[in-house]
Amino acid sequence: MIGTMDVLFWQLVHLLLRDGYRIAHLSERGDEIWLESGHWRRPTLVRLVRADFDWSRSLRLDIEYTWQLIRQMNGRKIGKGGRVVNVYVMAYPPVDDWEFLVSKPLPLPGAADGGFETLLIHSGNADEMLLRLGDLIGVSLRPQPLAEEADPFAVAERLKHEVLTEWRRQREEERRLFDYGKPVFTKLLIIVQVAMFLVLEWSGGSTNPDVLIHYGAKFNPLIEAGEWWRFLTPMVLHIGLLHLLTNTFALYYLGMTVERLYGSLRFLVIYITAGFFGTLASFLFTPSLSAGASGAIFGLFGALLYFGTVYRHLFFRTMGMNVVSLIVINLLFGLLVPGIDNAGHIGGLIGGFLAAGAVHLPKHAAWGRQFRALAAAVLLAAAGLWVGFR
């Protein structure tokens, strides 16, 4: 019976992987596996444990430990509509009373319609519990019956080997996601904006309004007069050394990450589009003279947010909370400190998100999603231009 339940454990892992789940954690002994769904709107974490607890006290302690562990995540893994399903696969249940431990789901912070569900699958209730588990996570779970002549321990070992191979493949795939492109344009853009700063200083000063206007800063009257290139040229101009240093460091760190994720050509499209949207928003909502790469840099934040919609769990497992926190802090800073063009920042953020959606991630075409993002970007830009020039 122990070998049969070992087979069932690894079959469940296989079925979930086939349905689009990814392995988030695998213990050294292979008796505990966390899997996360790819559904970003209603995420689900499934914890599978192959264990045989003789007494319900051990089961209760493990449930409480796992529940507290999930609570400490503050909802980052599951969101408001998600759930955690804690599944024990046992040959036999504990010898004393245990049903009350799994009779009701435990609450989770922030999970309005989700929760922490525990199921105990053993040799006497496997069919019933598999149906219930399938209903909870929306997956059809129909393990192949074990042939009579098959050695269950050998079959379980084979299935385990296949899972470990798939886990290594997933980790390698995730590593490659963050190392797709080489940061060529990031370095080039830094060189260009530093060179333009030196040109401004040589020509009379980077804080001189006349010099800034001459070299292409955003100046609404001249844009209204037909100088359309001023939607793009402000990206390489900076007002003062502090402005240059701030944006250069931001471009270096964000640009390196985004260009590695998206590749150089996609990165350039995202950056220029975000810069255009940032200047357009500034043109619509701010009459003052302005310049800087801030809108384009916020567009890089937008590109990272878009990456998070495609790889939600990977995003929050790596850089997600830092990205969201930096966006919020910078927008609040822009609201509290006078002279900061927050409209340009928000416009760049939106433009970068839509541009990232239009070009999508390398080797991951999603034509419907890309078309919708492109259409939204075109319509939003057209509407902004129509409002600005009417």
Q: What key attributes describe this structure?
A:
single chain; 390 residues; alpha/beta; five-stranded mixed beta sheet
Describe the structure.
It is found in: Membrane. Keywords: Hydrolase, Membrane, Protease, Transmembrane, Transmembrane helix. It is a multi-pass membrane protein. It comes from Geobacillus icigianus. With 390 residues, this protein is α/β, with parallel strands linked by helices. It is 59% helix and 8% strand. It has a 5-stranded mixed β-sheet with strand order 1-2-3-4-5, sandwiched between helices. The radius of gyration is 27 Å and the shape is elongated.
Explain briefly what this protein structure is.
The chain has helices at residues 2-18, 56-72, 126-137, 152-177, 184-203, 209-214, 220-224, 241-262, 264-285, 294-310, 312-318, 320-336, 342-359, 367-389, and strands at residues 22-26, 32-36, 44-50, 83-89, 116-121. By secondary structure, the chain is of the alpha/beta class.
